[in-house]
Design a protein that fits this description.
The protein has about 210 residues and is α/β, with parallel strands linked by helices. About 45% of the residues lie in helices and about 10% in strands.
Length: about 210
């Protein structure tokens, strides 16, 4: 079994070495200007899994989707999906999704008419957004997972975890992700207790990942 610190170092060095290895092998990284629309080449993107995609987690996820240098590849939540989440205003979540994907009819007569969130709605939002960047208008690149431990058991293809769970799960998920060699972005507050915060900082130093 590879030590988490070694795995984290491998992820960082792999990304940094891509251009050097490519030149030696006779191929080069395609600059974003060649791709058009200012897109970042896939080799320069950070792949993310969003754990906890209730109302606030969904908002955080949508903010990350807007960044061209990241790619959301998986979402995780114990809730398959429901329409009883709290909102800042009426239809706030629905309207944010409509603005994100550029579709003013999204959720109009379908299943997403209320304050809906959860893993399957979040996956559909990710696929709808990335679908706007394809010629076919469709994308099926995002996984929806119920248990975060399933993601961490096989983290290949994931560089970092975005944690938007309730506060009491911030530390357990973050520590498990760091030990799996993944970088962590955690929604505030950092943890549920001062002890948990100290432990998160300790594990971050031990594993060498950005947290």
């Amino acid at each position: 079994m590879t030590h988490p610190t070694t795995r984290a170092a491998h992820r960082i060095s792999r990304r940094a070495a891509l251009k050097t290895v490519g030149l030696a092998a006779g191929w080069t990284i395609v600059p974003r200007t060649v791709l058009g629309r200012g897109q970042t080449p896939p080799s320069d993107r950070l792949t993310l899994a969003c754990v906890g995609v209730g109302s606030q987690g969904l908002r955080v996820m949508m903010n990350f989707l807007r960044h061209d240098d990241v790619r959301v590849v998986a979402v995780c939540d114990v809730n398959r999906g429901s329409d009883d989440y709290s909102e800042w205003s009426t239809h706030e979540l629905r309207d944010k999704v409509r603005k994100l994907i550029g579709n003013e009819t999204w959720g109009g007569n379908g299943p997403y008419r209320g304050a809906i969130a959860g893993r399957e709605p979040a996956r559909d939002v990710v696929d709808a957004y990335y679908g706007t960047q394809t010629r076919s208008g469709q994308s099926k690149s995002c996984r929806a997972v119920e248990d975060y431990r399933e993601l961490l058991a096989n983290p290949d293809g994931i560089d970092a975890i975005v944690i938007g769970t309730p506060d009491h799960l911030h530390a357990p998920v973050a520590i498990a992700a760091m030990r799996a060699g993944l970088h962590v972005f955690c929604q505030k507050p950092m943890a549920h207790t001062v002890h948990e915060s100290a432990r998160m900082a300790e594990v971050s130093r031990e594993t060498g990942v950005a947290t």
